[in-house]
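chain below, 182 aa
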Amino acid sequence: VFDDLTELLKAQRLAAWREVAQRIAHEIKNPLTPIQLSAQRLRRRLGGAPQERELVNECTETIIHEVDALKRLVDEFSRFARMPAHTPRPTDLRPIVDGVAALYRDSHPALTIVTRHAEDLPVLEVDPDHLKRAVQNLVDNAVAAVRGVGDVEVETALVDGGRRARIAVSDRGPGIPAAEHE
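prediction:
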């Protein structure tokens, strides 16, 4: 007698992944609230000179915004071990790309990161959170490839006769070894 256990094994794996996802989400979410509250407290307490105040406001705003985005991602992740639901809305790609580039410029002074945008790039119907995560992952990979020193370019363009937009991230890193291409 032979039994096909494929569906049973899939269900068991899915249940295990759900459990792992819930635990990871819980562990990630725990430190986020104190991080966010600390950034808000820094913003309220640090005054100083106008230049310092501007820097503190800029940095704490980034922290607060990124913690909020991470909290939303963790909430979605904990619901069912998947990426968050896609919620497209009219979005200008330029501020997303420029914001990611600015984060890496500030944290990697030896890195030259250049952004170029198509002049005719329209507002697109996309999920800005998903798009930002994708751009951050690509730029992070490029920065790792050049080891934080060198050139990274991020370019937006219209393709397919203006029906699609493309975001291209390029670097001058060593590339993927031929043995790992597959």
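The first strand starts at residue 89 and ends at 91. The beta strands are 89-91, 111-116, 124-126, 150-159, 164-171.
thats it, cya
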